[in-house]
Write a structure and sequence with these properties.
- The chain contains eight helices and eight strands, in the order αβαβαβαβββαββααα.
- The protein is an alpha+beta fold.
- It has a six-stranded mixed sheet. Strands 4-5 form a two-stranded antiparallel sheet.
- It is globular.
């Protein structure tokens, strides 16, 4: 998964194609319903392929206070990269988003997730990565999050905004376990990585183009949040 040295075909793709075909943003309507909150901060957990790109997208989203790569869907004892990569732990590479609901809503985060962060019609894969650890999931922590997410998926399917049916799972969050430090802020720290260049930088560019009102140029980093 996400090797430092990619196969020649992927390497050629990274340097010859400015925007990977699978990373095109899909213009989406806003959710008809949204989560209401008067709390100073809220959290949401999304899984949509390699967490490097998903984290980077949300780090560039206005109103996000922190976005941490990690694991969700399995047990704490198996929340380690090498084990999760086996695809048998139940974990999905995930991102926990802490946000200010006065600046960005849960519904807007869903819109970013489905439009820019990944392709919700791919089953157990994203781009070059395949396996259950790369599945599309929204992990809800409240009944309101569950309701809004399910209704938004139904809204998008009914509108046929994607050529295929959305396969995103809507699952109760049992626990989120931060990934190893070397996975955090990966896209920012390794912008010249062929993988990041081919599969993740286009997502950030798409956020800026498709949702300029939600885009911020300077990402909020885990390293800064911890400091």
């Amino acid at each position: 998964m996400k090797p430092t040295f990619l196969a020649p075909s992927i390497l050629a793709l990274a340097f010859c194609i400015p925007a990977f075909a699978g990373e095109s943003a899909v213009p989406l309507p806003a959710p008809k319903q949204d989560v209401t909150s008067s709390a100073p901060t809220e959290t949401a957990v999304f899984a949509g392929g390699c967490f490097w790109g998903v984290q980077a997208v949300f780090q560039h989203t206005k109103g996000v206070l922190n976005a941490v790569s990690g694991y969700a869907g399995g047990e704490k004892s198996t929340a380690e990269y090498e084990v999760v990569s086996s695809g048998v732990t139940g974990h999905a590479e995930s991102v926990q988003v802490t946000y200010d609901p006065k600046q960005v809503t849960y519904g807007q985060l869903l819109q970013v997730f489905f439009s820019v962060a990944h392709d919700p019609t791919q089953y157990n894969r994203q781009g070059p990565d395949s396996g259950t650890q790369y599945r599309s999931v929204v992990f809800y922590s409240t009944p309101q999050q569950k309701d809004v997410t399910e209704k938004y998926i139904a809204q998008l399917d009914a509108a046929k905004v994607f050529p295929r049916h959305i396969v995103t799972q809507v699952t109760s969050l049992k626990g989120f376990y931060p990934a190893e430090g070397y996975h955090q802020d990966y896209a920012t720290r390794h912008p010249n990585s062929p993988y990041i260049f081919a599969f993740d930088l286009p997502k950030i560019a798409n956020l800026k183009t498709a949702m300029p009102q939600l885009y911020r140029d300077k990402p909020v980093l885990v390293s800064q949040a911890k400091g």
